[in-house]
Design a protein that fits this description.
Distance between the termini: 42 Å
Order of helices and strands: HEHHHEEEHEHEHEHHEHEH
Number of helices: 11
CATH architecture: 3-Layer(aba) Sandwich
Organism: Pedobacter suwonensis
Pfam family, one: Abhydrolase_3
Keywords: Signal
CATH topology: Rossmann fold
InterPro entries: AB_hydrolase_3 (IPR013094), AB_hydrolase_fold (IPR029058)
Oligomer: single chain
Protein name: Acetyl esterase/lipase
Number of strands: 9
Structural class: alpha/beta
Radius of gyration: 19 Å
Length: about 375
């Protein structure tokens, strides 16, 4: 399976470029100025054609990545079986190939990685653990959940995001390879996510982590899982995360929001793919109304402070906004930040995309403040 072949490439090239954190940020802000980060090495990355119809405001660096992704000629994911979809090229492939083609230098990793398999319901879940090379701990700990609609992708594809969190926060990151659908239907991924969090809480000291400083983070489907972990921790009366970072999370069932309409044909995520993910993960369409999937219908009271990151050119943009509103109404402290000109999946692209660098720095700031 192609995604499994990414590891040696990503471990060599997937280190993110670290920037000083942005300051003076306010709640509910939209980032429009890419000059806040150094983009000199990206100056040669110019789009080959005009901006796509579905994303007229797309930033040049983001467009180059989308053009590269399209150049592979893969069949649309929503037309494939899950097994074949996992063989498609990923946005990570596009970023890594562009870096190599343009001789973009990448710093050496500032973390060490190890693997660990843990027990979960009727099976095993693999964890990739990132530990800073600097210091002796105890470090704060972040449990991270990758995206992919509960069906595709893995910890390799999202390696850059997990590594960036570890390096910029100075934290141990436990990246969770929860089991995928349709081989493992709802709520397997949700249960695996919580099992990994429980394991991290119980084993924090052995990991050289501070058991009082544990946060959760996730992208897309992983953002949904991270929020669910906080809810389950509250319900089961175990230690709550001190903070949760939800990056363009799946948060509700309605695929007719304004962002779904505006960006129905966007890349790398479109409306048809979201329908395909839903069909593959859920046992029936009625389960889309389950509050584990439709977070906006869940009891959100008593959850930890939350950072939500959204992308402008993303069907899930409004999911993040709606969830932020619901969390605030439930009395949760929320920082919502939107990045213009970028698409779903941008967060891990800091090697090429200035907005990703800025988003990573902002998230790191939020986590460091919560850990204090």
């Amino acid at each position: 399976m192609k995604n499994n072949l990414l590891k040696p490439i990503i471990l060599a090239f997937g280190t993110t470029i670290l920037l000083s954190a942005c300051t003076g940020e306010t709640k509910n802000t939209t980032v429009t100025d890419s000059s806040m980060t150094d983009s000199t090495q990206m100056a040669t990355l110019k789009p080959a054609g005009p901006a796509p119809e579905w994303g007229k405001t797309i930033r040049p660096e983001m467009q180059v990545i989308i053009e590269k992704l399209s150049s592979y000629g893969d069949q649309p994911i929503e037309t494939l079986s899950a097994a074949d979809a996992r063989k498609n090229h990923t946005p990570t492939d596009a970023v890594m190939d562009l870096a190599k083609q343009n001789n973009i230098a990448v710093p050496m990793p500032k973390v060490d990685t190890t693997g660990k398999d843990i027990d979960a319901d009727n099976g095993k879940v693999h964890l990739r653990i990132y530990t800073p090379k600097v210091g002796n701990g105890p470090y704060p700990l972040i449990v991270y959940y990758h995206g992919g609609g509960f069906v595709i992708a893995n910890v390799d594809v999202y390696h850059a995001s997990a590594q960036a969190l570890a390096e910029q926060v100075g934290a141990i990151v436990v990246s969770v390879a929860y089991r995928l659908a349709p081989e493992n239907k709802f709520p397997t991924a949700h249960n695996d996510a919580f099992a990994a969090y429980e394991w991290a809480v119980k084993n924090a000291v052995d990991l050289k982590a501070d058991p009082a400083k544990i946060a959760v983070a996730g992208e897309s489907a992983g953002g949904n899982l991270a929020a669910n972990v906080s809810i389950m921790a509250r319900n089961k009366h175990i230690m709550l995360p001190v903070h949760e970072v939800l990056i363009y999370p799946i948060a509700q069932e309605d695929m007719n929001t304004e962002s779904y309409k505006m960006y129905a044909n966007a890349k790398p995520l479109n409306k048809a793919m979201m329908g395909w993910f839903t069909e593959k993960y859920l046992n029936s369409t009625i389960e889309a109304q389950d509050p584990k999937i439709s977070l906006v219908d869940a009891n959100l009271s008593g959850l930890p402070s939350t950072t939500i990151i959204t992308a402008e050119i993303d069907p899930l943009h409004d999911d993040g906004v709606m969830l932020a509103d619901k969390l605030k109404a439930a009395g949760v402290k929320v920082n919502l930040k939107n990045y213009e000109g970028v698409t779903h999946e941008f967060f891990g692209m800091s090697l090429l995309v200035p907005e990703a660098k800025a988003a990573q720095a902002y998230v790191a700031d939020q986590l460091k403040a919560a850990f204090k």
